[in-house]
Amino acid sequence: MARRETNGSKLFITVLCMVAACGAVPISDLLDRASQRSDTLHSLSTTLTQDLNNHIPPVGWMMMPRPSTCHTSSLQTPNDKEQALQLSESDLLSLARSLLQAWQDPLVVLSNSANSLVHPSQSSISNKIRELQEHSKSLGDGLDILSGKMGPEAQAISSLPYRGSNDIGEDSISKLTNFHFLLSCFRRDSHKIDSFLNVLRCRAAKLQPEMC
């Protein structure tokens, strides 16, 4: 399964590079493909979060940090679709790329931590985290290509360094709780990325906002 995903990601980037180089496919089609990839990323992170929900003990929920402490919370982003519709195409792509880049290091932490996670589906979770990394990398490469076609403002990226520890806990409960928290932060940001790209896709396809 992992082999097929790897090949699929390579194909996704290869196609984007080819069409960007020759200009054979319009930006609307490139955005459509990127939107599909971001939707997969959000769906996978949502499934992972649900896998963990039933195995967090009551004390774990009490220990869980608040969403406002996610390392990307300092980035000013639209709170809803109506606000997102007010932003320019360049700003939306810049926000999506900033959020995605901010998760390069934390996804490595999640991948390493998944190997020692005490959970009945530990192996499956570990494999899905690797898929998240794969999809995130391929989407990031695709958005880099798109930003090059949309101008300097779309290429601007806000720095959102991850300052958390590589060791997410000393015992099984704290590890599971902190793993869930970090994954929940990623799920929230993947939803934002997907929403921004969907707005861009609709604009490029000249669809009415209510159809998006």
TrEMBL record:
Cross-referenced InterPro entries: 4_helix_cytokine-like_core (IPR009079), Somatotropin/Prolactin (IPR001400), Somatotropin_CS (IPR018116)
Keyword match Cytoplasm: no
GO terms for cellular component: extracellular space
Signal peptide location: 1-24
GO molecular function, one term: hormone activity
GO biological-process terms attached to the record: positive regulation of cell population proliferation; positive regulation of receptor signaling pathway via JAK-STAT; response to nutrient levels
Keyword terms: Disulfide bond, Hormone, Secreted, Signal
Compartment(s) where it occurs, according to its Swiss-Prot or TrEMBL record: Secreted
PANTHER family xref list: PROLACTIN, SOMATOTROPIN,PROLACTIN
Family: Belongs to the somatotropin/prolactin family.
Record protein name field: Prolactin
Organism annotation: Acanthopagrus schlegelii (Black porgy)
Lineage: Eukaryota, Metazoa, Chordata, Craniata, Vertebrata
